[in-house]
Every structure is written in structure tokens, then in C-alpha cells.
Write a structure and sequence with these properties.
This protein is mainly alpha-helical. The protein is built from 17 helices and 5 strands. It is 68% helix and 4% strand. It has a 3-stranded antiparallel sheet.
């Protein structure tokens, strides 16, 4: 069989070609993106108006903050989870992920938007002790403001580590930008490059730094989902005792993080004209992972749901009526279809999975399902009454969004897109050094009547 393997022409760009192309493309995109930046800035201002209007309405009525909490959770479950696309496959030494590592890491910039939106929500969260009565939570015997403190530590820590990971992985490219760009972009890149010149010691330190930050980011991501879902959802519903839900909350974010990365890679590939770097292999590999996470969505949901289904106590039935079979039944059915059924029965087919548009369309459907799922959870949880009761005595009616909720939703999405777009103005959307590293480790060959790639394992 080895005799069937022969060398094939290598049409991949060299490092100098890629550097010249991506830096020049960055300048062209920067001039062409000004209209988009202004448009997204206007949408962000609309969101700020919605946040101010929500704050002006006060913090006493928790029901009014349900959709606001859902928006914060949605950003945590999409943009915050996207960097895991670069962390997990890299730890598994998957070569295909290198062109999309930067795309996923750029979502760390959205963490600034999430942190700013979290500040008003923190004041809306009731303390552990009200009128001398301590409500149920994961903080046994802790001070009244413990959820506020640890929630802030989790989100701010996640944002800091995400930005540090983005900066660390961009250092070699920032050095290239500092040598080829002009103006303010060059000055900022030179300062952030920290004197990187590519010595063996610097490369070893860089790989170690990326590995450590990636491990810490994974730990903080799970911790953030645990704290946020427990304090801003479970603890607000009387009788809701679910040890699996925080893991369901974290796992579904991996599915949405993959979906977010696929959509971003599609737009960067199309409008950034980076077809030579973001190829079919990247979308094909991510679609396989998205298929797997769709199965995990059902596994974790059913693992939690079956406990209440078999329990059949008054408290268990009230939780089912509130979260699944009651006034938010429409959101659950739509989520079930968009997050599990549609991805499962479409991505199993090679013509859909082995394409670029197919996974992108399914990723868009998954993100829509994720948003409805967070509405189902947080709008219902913040509408529940009798927080200190043994269980819910009256299932809350459906709480529909008002004008401020709509403004916050639109503004949050616009601000997230703006943060991502501004981040691409400084660093290339595709990692130059990762592309060169992959080029050194791989070699295209002819295999029989087809083509293949030989991948070396350096360590």
C-alpha cells in the first residue's frame, strides 16, 4: 500500500504569502468594515437604552429581569464556550483545528459585554437571607451576599483568562503585524508583542502559557456555569433540587460554542475571502463534534428529567409544569427540535455533514434553540413566587418580553458582534503561526486515485 503513496503538488500558501495576504486583508477589511462597525455601534446604543430602562424600573419585581438573565446566560452559553473549540482538539493533537483556533478565541472579546451586562443582574438577585429567612441554595451557612461575590469572581475570572488566552496565542502574529502594518495598529501590535522574536525559549514559554491558560479556562467555564445556573435559576424556584442541571447548562454551552464558531468561520471565510485557510475539513470536523454534542444534549436533559418524572411528588410535578409542560411548553418543544432532533437527523447524513453550508445552517438552528431554552429556564425561574416555600404552589403564567427586553436582546447581540469585529481589526482572524506550524507537520500526497495528507507527530 505504501507504494501507492506519491508526492502531490503543494498549493498551500507559504508563511510569507499568508502573512502578506492576511495583514493586507486586515487593512482592506478594516476600511470595508467601518459601515458595519457604525451599524453595530448604533444597535449597541439601543441595547444600552434597554438596560437603562430596565434598571430604572427597579429591582423589586424579579419577573421583569427574567429575559435579561436569559440574555446573560445565552452569551455565557455561546461566546464564552466558543474558545473550547480551540482548547479541546488542541489537547487531543488534532491538526484540523489550527485554522479555526483564532476564530474561536476571538469570542473571548465578547466576555467584556457579558461582564458589563452581569453587573445590573447581580443587583437584581435577592440575597440569601430576607426578613430573617434563609432560602435554599448551594451556599449553606454562608453570608447573605455570597452568590453575588462568587458569581462576580466566576464571570470576571472567565473574562480575564479568555482575554489572556487570546493575547498569548496572538503574540507571534502580533509581531508579524508590527512588522508589516502601519499606523496605530502597528504601534498597538508592537506593544502587545512583548519583544517576541521567535527564540526556542520564547516558543516553549508560549506553548506552556497557552496550555496552562486553556486548562484554567475550561475549569472556570464549568465553575461559572455551575454558579450562574445554581444561583440565577435553581435557587429562585422553590422545591427545585437538581444536581444534574448545572452540568446540563455547561454541556449545552459546548454545543452552542461549536455552533457559534462554525457561523463565525463561515462569515469570515466568505466576506474575509479566506477560503485558502478555512477549508471544508474544518467545517466537516466541527460538524462531527456538533453531532456528538446534540446526542449529549438529550442525555443530560433526560438524566435530570427522569428523576422528576419518576418522583411524582407534588414538588416534582410542579417543577415539570413550570419548566417543561406548563406555560413554557412552546419554548421546550422548539428547543427539543432545534437542539436535538433536527441536528441528529440531519448531521448523520454525509451530504449535509461533509459541506460548508450544511453545518452552518444547522448551527444557526442550534443557536436559536439555545436562546429559546434559556428563555424557558430563566423567564420561568424569575417569574416563580414563594421562593422560601417547600415547593411551587402556583405555576407562573408565561411572561412575555416588553419593549426593554427586546432592546436588551437586540443590543446584546449587536454588542457581541461589535466586540468580535473590533478584535479582528487588531489580530488576523486566522492564526499565522498555527498555519505555518500545520504546514511544517503535514504534507499532501497522492494515495491511489485520490489525495491524502500525511501528518507528523512532533512529540
Amino acid at each position: 500500500m505504501a507504494s501507492n503513496i506519491t508526492a502531490a503538488p503543494d498549493h498551500r500558501p507559504t508563511f510569507r504569502e499568508a502573512a502578506a495576504h492576511l495583514v493586507a486583508q486586515g487593512r482592506t477589511a478594516a476600511s470595508g468594515a467601518r459601515l458595519w462597525i457604525l451599524l453595530l455601534l448604533a444597535v449597541t446604543v439601543v441595547g444600552v437604552i434597554g438596560v437603562v430602562g430596565r434598571i430604572a424600573g427597579g429591582f423589586e419585581d424579579r419577573t421583569a429581569w427574567g429575559y435579561y438573565a436569559a440574555v446573560v446566560s445565552f452569551l455565557l452559553s455561546t461566546a464564552a464556550a466558543a474558545p473550547m473549540v480551540s482548547i479541546a482538539p488542541t489537547l487531543a493533537r488534532a491538526s484540523w483545528v489550527r485554522p479555526v483556533t483564532r476564530v474561536s478565541q476571538l469570542f473571548a472579546s465578547v466576555g467584556v459585554v457579558t461582564a458589563l451586562l452581569y453587573i445590573p443582574l447581580m443587583f437584581a438577585l435577592p440575597p440569601l437571607v430576607e426578613d430573617g429567612v434563609r432560602r435554599r441554595s448551594i451556599w449553606f451557612g454562608s453570608p447573605p451576599l455570597t452568590p453575588h461575590v462568587w458569581g462576580s469572581v466566576a464571570i470576571l475570572g472567565l473574562v480575564f483568562i479568555g482575554l489572556a488566552l487570546l493575547w498569548a496565542s496572538s503574540i507571534p502574529d502580533l509581531r508579524t503585524v508590527a512588522e508589516t502594518a502601519t499606523g496605530m495598529r502597528r504601534r498597538i501590535a508592537r506593544r502587545l508583542a512583548m519583544g517576541f522574536i521567535g527564540t526556542d525559549t520564547q516558543w516553549k514559554a508560549l506553548r506552556m502559557r497557552i496550555g496552562v491558560l486553556g486548562a484554567f479556562y475550561f475549569v472556570f467555564l464549568v465553575f461559572t456555569h455551575l454558579v450562574f445556573s445554581a444561583d440565577f435559576a435553581v435557587a429562585l424556584v422553590a422545591g427545585w433540587k437538581d444536581a444534574i442541571f448545572p452540568m446540563f447548562h455547561a454541556m449545552t454551552s459546548l454545543q452552542s460554542g461549536l455552533a457559534s464558531t462554525i457561523i463565525a468561520a463561515f462569515f469570515i471565510r466568505k466576506f474575509g475571502r479566506l477560503e485558502r485557510y478555512l477549508e471544508l475539513d474544518q467545517f466537516w470536523a466541527m460538524s462531527k463534534l456538533m453531532f456528538a454534542t446534540s446526542l449529549l444534549w438529550f442525555y443530560f436533559f433526560f438524566s435530570a428529567f427522569i428523576v422528576f418524572w419518576y418522583g411524582r411528588t407534588a414538588s416534582d410535578q410542579a417543577i415539570i409544569d413550570t419548566m417543561v409542560g406548563g406555560p413554557y411548553r412552546w419554548a421546550f418543544i422548539a428547543t427539543f427540535m432545534m437542539s436535538f432532533v433536527i441536528p441528529l437527523f440531519t448531521l448523520m447524513w454525509n451530504p449535509v455533514r461533509h459541506s460548508i453550508k450544511g453545518p452552518t445552517i444547522i448551527a444557526s438552528i442550534i443557536l436559536a434553540g439555545m436562546f429559546l431554552d434559556r428563555i424557558r429556564i430563566y423567564a420561568a425561574a424569575w417569574s416563580a413566587r414563594g421562593i422560601n416555600d417547600k415547593f411551587i404552589r402556583e405555576v407562573p403564567a408565561t411572561h412575555w418580553p416588553d419593549i426593554f427586553d427586546v432592546l436588551v436582546i437586540v443590543g446584546a447581540v449587536g454588542a457581541a458582534a461589535l466586540a468580535f469585529l473590533l478584535a479582528t481589526r487588531l489580530v488576523p482572524a486566522v492564526s499565522l503561526w498555527e498555519i505555518q506550524y500545520m504546514r511544517l507537520l503535514t504534507r499532501p500526497v497522492r494515495f491511489g486515485k485520490g489525495h491524502a495528507v500525511i501528518i507528523a507527530k512532533p512529540d
